[in-house]
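Here's what a typical entry looks like (GDP/GTP exchange factor Sec2 N-terminal domain-containing protein):
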Amino acid sequence: MEQTTLLNTMDSILDHRSDVSDANSVDSAFSIENGVVTTPEPIEHSTSSATLFNELQRVKQDLKDKDTEIQRAHEIRENTDREIEDLTASLFESAHSMVEQAKYAQSNAEQKLKIANQTIDALVVENTQLKKSVSELKEIINNCRSSLLTNRSLPITSILSSTEQQSQSSIRQIVREKLHKRSSSDLQQSLSSIDISTKIDTDIVDNVLLREFARWEEKPSIGSDSSAFMHRVYSEDILPCLTFPNADLSSRILTAIEHNDVTMETFHMRTIEENMKVCSLTGDLCQCNYRVRLCERGEWYPISRLSRNRIAAVCDFFTFIRHVQSGLVKSDTRNRYNKIIELRKQMAFARLGL
């Protein structure tokens, strides 16, 4: 704005000086002396006017150059602003991506830590059980040695062979018992990963039961009246498997299994005669090598092998159901259904004494 005003002022000054010089030149060109008009010689323009005009032209050119530089500076500033905005957006996206990756890595690390802690707990429990098994084996060996001393009348070879057979059978029996032992801690820590491969013919499927199981998986719960699937399993497998002459104890055992409070273990006496007891469930006088209790500090009830197998089959079913409910069984619905059928078959076999 100031540049334009300066140019206009200088143009008006030059025009005024030009008019004045033209008038002076006309007056000087014609003069009357004694009635005669005379024409003087032309006078040159002042050198100051030429200098001022040249200065004006130079100022105009400078102003044009400055306008060009200002326009170029504006363009550079706009380009710089756009680059800064793009760089800021890129940095923000990179920071957001880094934060998301850090959160994902932290989540994976926490999950691995949780799995590692569960594995450590399971190994500790297994180590404890192995130590207990070793102590029991030592006790059996000591019993065998004492029997050797008491049976000196028998030949040495027969004593050794019978002792060896007894030790081997005892070891096999303890291993089987440990595999089927159920306690409150075992029910909570076992089956962290379950192999649900079965030998069932997958081409033959009860579609009604499969649909009931699929609907139960949407809202899994434990209880005979919680769903059609659980009602069917209770009525067809669980209740028949736990039906004993002692109905009151049978009902309390089922309640303890549902609340994951049942504990079952082996209970060996020194002689077979000492193991001959009345089974708390069947009421028969038989060899009761097992005992069961319904709470942490409850009373122990001696039971026979048949009763123990039936209780263990029901415990296996509820253990798998709890792990499905907790989301620990990573497989599709069909494979989980096949495992359910296998467990129901085990309950049927245990009920028949097979």
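The beta strands are 31-33, 36-38, 263-266, 276-278, 285-287, 290-293, 301-303.

More examples are in the samples folder.
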